[in-house]
Design a protein that fits this description.
Layout: H1 2-36, H2 42-47, E1 64-72, E2 79-82, E3 90-94, E4 98-103, E5 108-110, E6 113-123, E7 126-134, E8 139-148, E9 152-159, E10 162-164, E11 168-175, E12 180-184, E13 191-194, E14 200-202, E15 205-215, E16 221-227
């Protein structure tokens, strides 16, 4: 009888240890699943019905931007504007003088439209213009202008259709009719935005909505729409 009693104690001990071990595995597993799925509940994790949180879609840029820099285009003499902020500096424009920035690889057709931008400066009033710089004649041809009167100011320039040909560059000019002006091109403070080229169409009526066909990395094609800014 004593031997049977001892065997029963050993048997219950084995069962208790096994149950504890199994519960431990269950606890660790459900914790790991819950951590992996974030805010999902343990029940959802175990059932396999967890819906991952959606990743925010990237914003489609509907314009091309050029930032004014302090760099000088070798062999041309103008300053350079880039597609990202680079080598900013303070650039002095004397009375009656002008500074011209050019964009490399910018030949092509530019439709009539509204160009926007931003200028940060010190000093007095100046005139900013979008146009074409001809490297053969060293002339700047204005396609639209705006006045800058504030130390920091956004602007809009209405241009007619124009083209940039061989040995020519899309250009931006600051002209100073005042005593003095100093342009701050540090940290991307000054830039211009080219209007979007895509068609603006809605049932054959221009409606201020851009639609563009985009090919994804996996080869599929999607249409992206956005409101005109």
């Amino acid at each position: 009888m004593r031997r049977v009693f001892i065997l029963l104690i050993v048997l219950f001990s084995i069962i208790a240890v096994g149950t504890s071990f199994a519960l431990g595995i269950f606890t660790v597993t459900t914790c790991n699943i819950a951590e992996t799925t974030g805010a999902a509940s343990v029940t959802e994790a175990l059932s396999g019905n967890v819906i991952p949180e959606s990743t925010p879609s990237p914003t489609l840029s509907l314009h091309t931007r050029w930032y004014l820099s302090g760099d000088i285009a070798q062999g041309i003499g103008c300053r350079v504007m880039y597609s990202e902020p680079k080598n900013g500096s303070y650039i002095f424009v004397h009375t009656g003088g002008e500074i011209i920035w050019i964009a490399y690889n910018s030949s092509g057709q530019y439709p009539a439209g509204e160009w926007t931008g931003h200028i940060k400066k010190m000093g007095y009033k100046c005139i900013v213009s979008i146009g074409v710089f001809d490297n053969r004649t060293k002339e700047f041809y204005t396609c639209g202008s705006a006045a800058i009167t504030e130390p920091e100011q956004s602007f809009t320039i209405h241009t007619w259709a124009f083209s940039v040909g061989e040995d020519q560059y899309l250009a931006f000019r600051v002209y100073n009719p005042s005593p003095w002006v100093k342009i701050n091109t540090c940290n991307g403070a000054c830039y211009i935005d080219k209007p979007c080229d895509v068609r603006i169409e809605d049932d054959d009526v221009f409606a201020g909505v851009y639609e563009s066909k985009v090919r994804k990395f996996n080869g599929s094609v999607v249409f992206v729409r956005g409101e005109a800014s």
